[in-house]
Amino acid sequence: MDSDIALNHLRGERYHDESYDLHNGLRRRVRANSEAPREFSLPEADGGRDAWLFLAGCFMVEALIWGFPFSFGVFQDYYLTHEPFASKPSGIAIIGTSSTGIMYLSCPILFAAFKRWPTIRRSFTLVGLVINATAIIAASFATTVSHLILTQGLLYAIGGVMVYCPTIVFLDEWFIRRKGLAFGMMWAGTGVSGVVLPFIMSALLDKFGFRTTFRAYAVALALLATPLLFFIRPRLPLAQTSLQRRLDMSFLRMSTFWIPQMCNIIQGLGYFIPNIYLPTYARSQGMSGAQATVMLALVNLGVVFGAIWAGALTDRMHVSSVMGICSTGAALAVFLFWGLSVSVPMLCLFSLLYGLTAGGFSANYTGIVQGVKDRDTAVDSGMVFGFLAAGRGIGAVVSGPLSEALLHLQTWKGEAKLGYGTGYGLLIVFTGITAVAGGGSWFARRVGWV
């Protein structure tokens, strides 16, 4: 029985320990056998040069692919103040949320395809990168918001998910005992890019406009990401017996999956709102463009550390507890610091705290996956992860038009105090409520539902 099949029949901590021994024991036995071909010697899991180079490659790919849509607040601020988009701004928020949302929503489809045709996994990364660069160049010719939705939103998302999903599958092979930490470190790449990229994009947009900026980024993306794809490779050999395995979807009937998933979807409805609206909110309070960019960068700086600490905690604590910590911190940040802020220091504090807490929420996915596998070891980790990502995608796609509608109402403007009376009050309250709901798994575990 190949190691892929063996891994699917191990559980909990025993799953981690035994799979670690299996992989590294097999590696030692193969090396000791002089008759065995060299190509079947397995690289070390959870450490060693190959594992860390792979993780570094994942970090950089994550930064380049996800950093662009997570910097969308800068683009939205530009589109709202520059032609040919400022005169007909309806739908601008949908550009950013459609990009992230479709990437998330497409994950189950790609994970199922990789299960059926595993030989396509690595080639998809190169094809996806080509689509990404093409989408950005196509967006540089846009003359309407709908053109941007199709290119910067939809087409970019198709390419992005083709690059992203293979890294998730391969990382699950390279890291076993330190899986939560490894995923957190990879996802921190989005935060690092989100700290740097808004300043670069803002400067380029101000000096050259969006057409030249997009073309320059497309070239940079191709030049920087292509060499990294060499390191994005599987650790385990592809066994012939894995080619025709049936998808096990039994987890769709488990409360262990559905309760965290519902919390994940609701949290996703509000999670992207600060990334979209912080720059425009800052400008509405009389802050400069540079200060508005700082707010978005601070959110992403918080995500860097939030993803790492939350990922590390899921290796040591029950995932419902980590989800509760992330959600409580995010809700307090929203209600206290965004709702009460109309000054630069308070908004900076909110941005950093929100990224640190809400930004760690998706790092809980590894813990949710493990909880499902504790109930049924035959469940495929990739499919569970794919459906969790799709849940977040539902929130991302819906939050675009929903947030525009909430902002259009201008609820409490001139009536409430501080941030709640700026016209963004309903957005602030909605974001805070969804953050609270994200921690529902903690309560569900206390009453025995999970």
DSSP strand count: 0
Percent of residues in helices comes to over 70%
- What percent strand? under 5%
Largest sheet: none
Low-confidence stretches: 1-39
Average pLDDT for all residues = 86
Count of helical regions: 18
The rounded distance between the terminal residues' Cα atoms is: 33 Å
Please trace the helix and strand order, writing H or E for each element: HHHHHHHHHHHHHHHHHH
Which structural class matches the secondary elements?
mainly alpha
Question: Rg from C-alpha positions?
Answer: 22 Å
Spatial shape = globular
Structure overview:
This protein is mainly α and 450 residues long. The chain contains 18 helices and no strands. The longest helix has 50 residues.
Write the layout of secondary structure elements.
Elements: H1 3-7, H2 12-32, H3 49-70, H4 72-81, H5 92-105, H6 107-116, H7 121-139, H8 145-174, H9 179-228, H10 255-271, H11 273-284, H12 289-314, H13 319-338, H14 344-358, H15 365-375, H16 381-409, H17 425-437, H18 440-446
Helix pairs in contact: 3-8, 3-9, 4-5, 4-9, 4-11, 5-8, 5-16, 6-8, 6-16, 7-8, 7-9, 9-12, 10-16, 10-17, 11-12, 12-14, 13-14, 13-17, 13-18, 15-16
